[in-house]
Specification:
Blueprint lengths: L3 E12 L13 E10 L2 E7 H7 L7 E4 L4 E4 L1 E3 L11 H8 L4 H6 L4 H10 L2 H17 L2 E7 L6 H17 L3 E9 L23 H19 L4 E6 L6 H13 L3 E6 L7 H7 L4 E4 L5 H10 L2 E4 L1 H7 L6 H6 L5 E2 L12 H12 L3 H7 L2 H6 L17 E4 L6 H4 L6 E6 L2 E4 L13
Parallel strand pairs: 1-4, 1-5, 6-7, 7-8, 8-9, 9-10, 10-11, 11-12, 12-13
Antiparallel strand pairs: 1-2, 2-3, 5-14, 14-15, 15-16
Helix pairs in contact: 5-6, 6-7, 7-8, 9-10, 13-14
The structure holds N-(iminomethyl)-L-glutamic acid and fe (iii) ion (FE).
Length: about 425
């Protein structure tokens, strides 16, 4: 028998995120709306009287009275590096004093520092940290997240990271999608794998030799392991060239991993056109993308994933989201959560997308939900609240989706449902506010 999982009823608005680009109503608003979830999927969405007549709230396993509140789909955070050890708060401070991301990387800091820490961490430490991060994410409304490897840069640690991602997916209500990113940086000689990562000479290894290792050693092992679904490369100044990136992505695609590209972040290097050429699911960052790049992405059906939190932390210029929307691109917005961009809130990224990149609140909403699902090749309605979509929904402590960017810096999430079960109620666990007489 079908399990009648949840009814969220009486919402001031249900933002279904079903409207498309160029629509008058991208957020797909239903006023005075309700949703019903049966067997983990949305069974009905519409006006409260209609939905509750067919699905009486008192019969549901989870009844959520959303009077005066807005309901949105669970966020799909389509670009993170959430599996890592340590932090780089001191580098954040150095960047505020003028040191650049490229300088930190070139001097053995940045990604290299996180590689050393990640290699030295145990599986249990990595898993514990990742589960903690997922708790923070779900409290901010994220119900699906993509997590990349890429802080191992050797076969053993890349496989360990992906295994940790897989175990986190099993243990945590948030769905975790794995991406292999052995080509995240050209490694240095860090010393013995499994050591503390500092016994080597620290000298950079030859980039082409490393690409050989990614293609000939890491990729086959990653495919055998069977966890990763996507293959990503950092195609940029100080990382991999277009030719090196193409080799990795083509080899990955031949073995069934869908390409993704970190493109045009620090400089314009041709990663966006490469993403179009190889039919990538997404091209990400795009701070330096040209109109021609955007046209190529649109023609090839590649989803642009914009990461304004990274530009914010780097003090860099933002990607031109407005121009991409005008060009017909289904712009997605994600956090890029990593030690260089320690933000786990898609809502905060949405606020930046509105204020700094010219999106409307409704466009920012579909960028973090419906379009983000496209960046993960999901076509089952993920990121929307339409009939048949996963029952992933967020009830806001606010009357409309506009309050997400409007209340920037505040977590406006009141309750989170994953597959129709309430999995997080961040604002309910507050102190007792009763005023003493
Ligand atoms: O997407 N740009 C490359 N990769 C990450 C940063 C990773 C790091 O600095 O640790 C990014 O921003
Ligand atoms: Fe990234």
């Amino acid at each position: 028998m079908a399990e009648f999982t949840a009814v969220v009823h009486g919402a001031a608005e249900v933002a279904t995120a079903t409207g498309g680009l160029g629509s008058d109503d991208p957020a797909g608003i239903v006023e005075d709306g309700s949703i019903a979830v049966v067997d983990g999927a949305v069974a009905a969405v519409g006006p409260t009287d209609e939905v509750t007549r067919e699905y009486p709230p008192e019969n549901a396993a989870h009844e959520v009275d959303a009077s005066g509140q807005a309901v949105i789909p669970g966020y799909v955070d389509s670009h993170t590096h959430a599996c890592f050890a340590g932090d780089r708060a001191d580098e954040f401070e150095a960047k505020l004093r003028g040191t650049t991301y490229g300088e930190l990387l070139a001097s053995g800091g940045g990604i290299h520092r996180t590689v050393r820490a990640t290699r030295a961490a145990s599986d249990d430490e990595l898993l514990g940290d990742l589960l903690d991060h997922l708790d923070v994410m779900v409290a901010h409304g994220t119900t699906t997240v993509e997590v990349k490897s890429g802080y191992g840069l050797d076969t053993e640690t890349e496989l360990r990271m992906l295994d940790v991602v897989d175990r986190a997916d099993d243990r945590h209500p948030v769905d975790v999608v794995a991406t292999f990113m052995g080509a995240h940086a050209v490694p240095r000689d860090y010393g013995d794998p499994g050591g503390d990562g500092t016994s080597g000479t620290g000298a950079p290894v030859d980039a082409d030799d490393y690409v050989d290792r990614v293609v000939d050693e890491q990729l086959p092992a990653v495919v055998d392991q069977g966890v990763a679904e996507f293959c990503d490369v950092f195609c940029d100044e100080g990382a991999f060239t277009v030719d090196q990136s193409r080799r990795v992505l083509r080899a990955g695609a031949e073995r069934g991993l869908t390409p993704k590209v970190h493109a045009e972040e620090l400089a314009h290097r041709g990663g966006a056109k490469l993403a179009a050429e190889v039919g990538a699911a997404s091209a990400d960052h795009l701070l330096h993308a040209t109109d021609e790049d955007v046209a190529a992405l649109v023609a090839a059906g590649v989803t642009p994933v914009l990461l304004p939190g990274t530009a914010f932390g780097l003090g860099a210029d933002y990607a031109d989201a407005r121009a991409m929307v005008e060009a017909g691109a289904p712009v997605a917005v994600a956090t890029d959560f990593n030690p260089n961009c320690h933000s786990q809130s898609v809502g905060f990224a949405s606020a930046l997308a509105c204020v700094e990149m010219g999106l409307t609140p409704a466009e920012a909403l579909i960028a973090g939900t419906k379009h983000a699902a496209l960046a993960l090749d999901r076509t089952d309605g993920l990121g929307t609240l339409r009939e048949g979509a996963p029952g992933d929904a967020v009830v806001l402590a606010a009357p409309s989706h506009v309050h997400i960017p409007y209340q920037y810096g505040t977590n406006v999430v009141d309750a989170v449902l994953k597959d129709g079960s309430v999995v997080s109620t961040p604002t309910h666990e507050s102190y007792d506010r009763e005023v003493q007489p």
